[in-house]
Amino acid sequence: MDATGSNLSYLDPARREPWASFIEQIDRVAPHLGQLSRWIETLKHPKRVLIVDVPIVRDDGTIAHYEGYRVQHNLSRGPGKGGVRFHPAVTLNEVMALSGWMTIKNAALGLPFGGAKGGIRFDPRSVSRPELERITRRYTSEIGIVIGPDKDIPAPDVGTNEQTMAWMMDTYSMNVGGTASGVVTGKPISLGGSLGRREATGRGVYFAAREAGLRIGTPVLGARVVVQGFGNVGGIAARIFSENGAKVIALQDAETTIANEAGIDIPAALAHVAENGSLLGFAGAKRLSEDDFWQLDCAFFVPAALEGQVTPARARAMRAKIVVEGANGPTTPAADDILNERNILVIPDVLANAGGVTVSYFEWVQDFSSFFWSEDEINERLERIMTNAFEATWQLAQERKVTIRTAAFIVACQRVLASREQRGLYP
Q1: Going from the N-terminus, what domains does the chain have, and what CATH number goes with each?
Q2: Least buried of 50, 261, 295, 361, by fewest C-beta within 10 Å?
Q3: C-alpha triplet 61, 62, 64: angle, nearest 5°
């Protein structure tokens, strides 16, 4: 950002991360696309970038301004789909990259969506609940020109939740003059949300880990697991690992890092976070240094925090057998290469954390039909879609002798660019 807080300089090479990581991933897959590679530049240019001012009256009567974004990366295969992030580190660069990864993720899973993402740069913990509602509603009004049930469907992400989606749905509905439940997913059940949505991303991480472990002889039962990030994704994933016989030996959140070689009581840790807001002070484990955290011997390492956490230095230190990316873009391309050289299997975000958007798809379909499925049906459909996508990607990786990430990008890019070619350019 420049001195005014603007992100208009996002194309400055010195400021391109994490968009630069996404571009490098696209460049790496280009040689595998055959004649479709002539369309590759499509994926390097977001279709639409919206930057909005979000002004509100604060509780003390002062006026505050926040910068918000909605990026639609690609809409060739359907309406945009992607979360909304409330975080003090949100930048246009980050939102562009996240929207690109959503394009790849949706295509890799075979979902009829394009990629989109949004965010506002602020700390939601620093404002009151009424202020948070005003920020959310004003942001929704500002981006209302580009979202809609058949245009672009937001969902929760870091710093947002079911209540955020309820405010967004209500604001959009008031502005269009009728209830539009399908404009967002991840809503409360009472407003057309789907059973199983809250746990879907963490559950999908577990499915991806299980499938990877089965293929390299590393079963979940009895496995040592390390989780970075203990929010909705990391917390749920840790719980499901534990329920299936794994031993979660270390956790890290924004406040602290803890470990217990005998295994952490995950329900107790979740209860502690619900009451205190973080893992800090949890009595069931000891504090651990960050350096030691990245060097723990484990079967599964789950980075489920923010992007760019697995750096080359950390990749050289890691002692995991399988890295399962619960976060979006947690591993830099250089770190990816190091993990591959060290024979550490990486299950990329575009497969591993696709459970959330898959159940968001179910929610969107249910809202259109006004016919809702049971939670068992949701989980069965989620497991089937994720395991089928994993198997197809795994087989392609073996045939092409490429990493799982490259295979996932091959599958996704072929689908997106074939759609682009078939639709043609207008005018």
Answers
A1: 13-179 (3.40.50.10860), 199-352 (3.40.50.720)
A2: 261
A3: 130
Q: Which residues of 312-328 are buried (b: 16+ CB within 10 A; e: fewer)?
A: bebbeebebbbbbbbbb
Residues annotated as catalytic are 117
3-state secondary structure 205-274: HHHHHHHHHHHHCCCCCCCEEEEECCCHHHHHHHHHHHHCCCEEEEEECCCCEEECCCCCCHHHHHHHHH
The string of pLDDT tens digits covering residues 280-331 is 999 999 999 989 999 999 999 999 998 889 999 999 999 999 999 999 889 9
Give the global pTM: 0.91
Cα torsion at 31, 33, 38, 43 (round to 10°)?
-90
Q: What is the DSSP letter of 194?
A: P
Distances 3 to 6, 7, 9, 75 between C-alpha atoms, Å: 7, 10, 11, 34
What is the mean predicted confidence (pLDDT) over 341-366?
96
**pLDDT 10s digits, 48-95:** 999 999 999 999 999 999 999 999 999 999 999 999 999 999 999 999
